[in-house]
Write a structure and sequence with these properties.
Blueprint (H helix, E strand, L loop, with lengths): L22 H8 L13 E3 L2 E3 L6 E6 L4 E7 L3 H16 L8 H17 L1 H12 L3 H22 L7 E3 L4 E9 L2 E5 L5 H15 L2 E5 L6 H13 L6 E3 L4 H9 L6 E5 L2 H13 L4 E5 L5 E4 L5 H13 L11 E5 L3 H10 L22 H16 L3 E4 L3 E2 L5 E2 L2 E4 L6 H4 L6 E7 L2 H8 L4 E2 L1 E5 L3 H10 L4 E4 L14 E2 L2 E2 L6 H4 L2 E9 L7
Parallel strand pairs: 7-8, 7-10, 8-9, 10-11, 12-13, 12-20, 13-18, 17-18, 20-21
Antiparallel strand pairs: 1-2, 3-4, 5-6, 6-24, 11-23, 14-17, 15-16, 19-22
Helix pairs in contact: 2-8, 3-5, 3-6, 3-7, 4-5, 4-7, 5-6, 10-11
Bound molecules: adenosine-5'-diphosphate.
Adenosine-5'-diphosphate binds next to helix 8 and helix 9.
Protein name: Aldehyde dehydrogenase domain-containing protein
Subunit structure: Homotetramer.
Pfam family, one: Aldedh
Length: 522
């Protein structure tokens, strides 16, 4: 998930720059004028302290603009996870956080949100040097989502309650909603701050304690957020951060006997491992937000310019590194040719370059592995017979920049139509009828989200109900808010991030039954 905020469609598209690859990228290849913000926090955050890993090992975290190491970060593994879980356990079993009133917890969470807002620029810069995200967009979109999310769940913290139930006979019952305990959060690199907030906010509201395992590509902003959490007054042990690799630190969390729940966002492949580890250990509660290959279905009756802009942003926003990217574009035959022409024209206004430059629309892919993977998919598209309309190549000698790439004549069984590429690659397909559109949209193992562009209410309603996915956008795309539930169908996972439903992931329901004597109202 990886979700952008609702501001993204408002962000103005293309300036008048026509060179696509602006100077900053050329400079980044010469590495002369790169901005590198100060990196203050590089150690594990356990029980309110920044500490070295037990092994003393570190790993280099890299700037995707150049591929160079920007900081050495502590490499946590099983031993460090054990220590962090102990701290979180102690904070849950004996600490004040779960025992405070929801109202008081809410006040601390609000302070945390204020601090994130105040430090938005530094956080955005750290995200940029770790994952190539646009600084200006991260500031106005991701930081805003994160603070809104914390404020939304701060307001929910004192509204968590069970219900009273009538029983047959001389009994009454009520339910309690209790915090599940110690929660493990394993998150990816494409929206680190957004996902931190989406997971931390409801977890904090319920009174649980937690361990975060950020992606190895993007630990810096999460460590900074941990520091701000302490500044806000969140007690020691409530939020712990173990930086390190998935098969070591991540697996130690999902298989830990003393972790009560794990909330994972990442690939379907790793999601299965997390679920397997939870099953093989203590049957901890699992929630998974996994991959997507989302369809955007465009009908003949829409404004073509709106359709092109929506499709463009659906695919190329955040360089395509979005699980809800609308990477399968289905266009009805009546507007197909015009759509191809206009979408190709759009390329000239799209600027790829240094994500610190406010005029840039697309930064580098997160790392060499993703960069190579995207280029391999582009090659597979060509090999399997799709037509390359535009793009298809890497840009520059240094860093992980890829041209916005568009394929037409894509067949349903091609890899580029089936696999989650996680890069700036659009696959366009034609359809004739609404039935065909529904069948094709559902022709995927994923079910995260879908978009429908039409002016016909009946078409919108029918297609919305026929697509097996957790989120549907009609005449818009990627609009998300803290109050709107977000989660998948099929192999995109289960459990909701966002919306009041997110609280349920971190709560257990207990029923209490008592006799009731001599009541005239039985
Ligand atoms: P992506 O494909 O987006 O990089 P991954 O699913 O590989 O996503 O990674 C998402 C998160 O899961 C990262 O924090 C990563 O370190 C972690 N991870 C990777 N492998 C495992 C594993 N075996 N167990 C637990 N976490 C893992």
């Amino acid at each position: 998930m990886e979700f952008p905020s609702s501001t993204f469609l408002k962000s103005s598209s293309p300036s008048s720059i026509n060179g696509q690859i602006i100077d900053s990228l050329c400079e980044s290849n010469g590495v002369s004028k790169l901005k590198i913000p100060e990196v203050k926090f590089t150690k594990l955050f356990i029980n309110g302290q920044f500490v070295d890993s037990v092994s003393g090992k570190t790993f280099g975290t890299r700037d995707p603009r150049t591929g160079d190491v920007v900081a050495e970060v502590a490499e946590g593994d099983k031993e460090d996870v054990d220590i962090a879980v102990k701290a979180a356990r102690e904070a849950f079993d004996h600490g004040k956080w779960p025992r405070m009133s929801g109202f008081d917890r809410g006040r601390v969470i609000l302070k945390f949100a204020d601090l994130i807002e105040q430090h938005g620029e530094e956080i955005a810069m750290l995200e940029s040097i770790n994952s190539g995200k646009l600084v200006h967009l991260t500031k106005e979109s991701d930081i805003q989502f994160a603070t809104n999310c914390l404020r939304y769940f701060a307001g929910a913290a004192d509204k968590i309650h069970g219900e009273t139930l009538k029983c047959t006979g001389e009994f009454q019952a009520y339910t309690l909603k209790e915090p599940v305990g110690v929660v493990g959060h394993i998150i990816p690199w494409n929206f680190p701050t957004v996902l931190f907030a989406a997971k931390a906010a409801p977890t904090l509201a319920t009174g649980c304690t937690m361990i975060f395992k950020p992606a190895e590509q993007s630990p810096l902003s999460i460590l900074y957020l941990a520091y701000l959490a302490k500044e806000a007054g969140i007690p020691d042990g409530v939020i712990n951060v173990i930086t390190g690799y998935g098969p070591t630190a991540g697996a130690a969390i999902s298989s830990h006997m003393d972790v009560d729940a794990v909330s994972f966002t990442g690939s379907t492949e790793v999601g299965k491992l997390v679920m397997g580890a939870a099953a093989a250990s203590n049957l901890k509660t699992v929630s998974l937000e996994l991959g997507g290959k989302c369809p955007l279905v465009i009908f003949n009756d829409v404004d073509i310019n709106m359709a092109v802009q929506t499709a463009w942003q659906a695919v190329f926003f955040n360089k395509g590194e979005v699980c809800i990217a609308g990477s399968r574009i289905y266009v009805q035959e009546g507007i197909y040719d015009e759509f191809l022409k206009k979408v190709t024209d759009n390329v000239k206004d799209w600027v790829v370059g240094d994500p610190f430059d406010p005029q840039v629309h697309q930064g580098p892919q997160v790392d060499k592995e993703q960069f190579d993977k995207v280029l391999r998919y582009i090659e597979s598209g060509k090999r399997e017979g799709a037509t390359l309309l535009t793009g298809g190549k890497a840009i520059g000698e240094k860093g992980y920049y890829i041209e916005p790439t568009i394929f037409t004549d894509v067949k349903e069984d091609m890899l580029i139509a089936q696999d989650e590429i996680f890069g700036p690659v659009m696959s366009i397909m034609k359809f004739k009828t609404i039935e065909e559109a529904i069948e094709k949209a559902n022709n995927t193992k994923y079910g995260l989200a879908a978009g429908i562009l039409t002016n016909d209410l009946n078409t919108a309603n029918r297609v919305s109900r026929s697509i097996r996915a957790g989120g549907i956008w009609v005449n818009c795309y990627m609009i998300t808010e803290s109050g709107i539930p977000f989660g998948g169908y099929k192999m995109s996972g289960f459990g909701m991030d966002s919306g009041l439903q997110a609280l349920e992931k971190y709560l257990k329901v207990k029923s209490v039954i008592t006799p009731i004597y001599n009541s005239p109202w039985l």
